[in-house]
Amino acid sequence: MLTTGHVDHFRTFGFIVLRGYLADRVSALRAETGAAIRDAYIATYDERVIDGISGHYLPMAARLTPVSASLVCDDPRFIDAAEQLLGGPVIPECPEGVLYFAEASWHDDDGIGVRGVKFAAYFDELNADSGALRLVPGSHHREQNTRLAGYRNRQMPVRSDAEAAAYQASIPGYVAATTAGDVIAFDLHTWHASTGGRDRLAWTAVYQRCPETDSERDRTLRSVHDSFEQAFRGFDTGRYPIWRDWLADAAAHPRRAGVIERMRHAGILDLRSAQDGW
Question: Is the pTM of this model over 0.90?
């Protein structure tokens, strides 16, 4: 359960660092995430193709990743926190294990207009020099987000590494230094980046506010579909499906029933017919 101070900080600044929030499960989750990514990408694990926010991304709601799967809602710490932060019922996206390869330029995680929160747990101690997440306080507010997008557009294109570094440094951000067990929760519209890091193992989970109108439902479906298309490829989706195993095992986990009903009502489960590896 988050405090009212946590919620106020999140809504004011667009993020909150939850110290030790995952301390009791971080060792098991780290071992599971590292082993699963190495297994899923066995043929290309050592390749480092730098293109955008580069990394090995893996859905982690499968029977092969039970710790991660349990954190969707069986262990309610994340779904309950998401509902507090977003002010109402939420639906989950599939949690991800990620091995990030390099730096990430300034961006937010929503270009469609959904309301959501991302939880990010990094398994190594990270600071300003080793790739800690940087966030721009208040950038989730529409006016500031628009101003930042305009500033970015005026700086583009960057034609050299030096220009890219200068642009990256020109935006002031809060450095969220973390150790294993800490969790960063941030609004999907909050601008964030990472500087100075190389291989960084992480686990992330996104929750969206349940859509209430047809237009909100359409945006939710587009957002979920785009996340599948962009991230989940290059591995055996039969062994690491998105929701298939999690749904099949729901009878043994009573907390899942209500969440599945919300997902079905939002239309997310209808995407199964269009996606391989569900």
Answer: yes
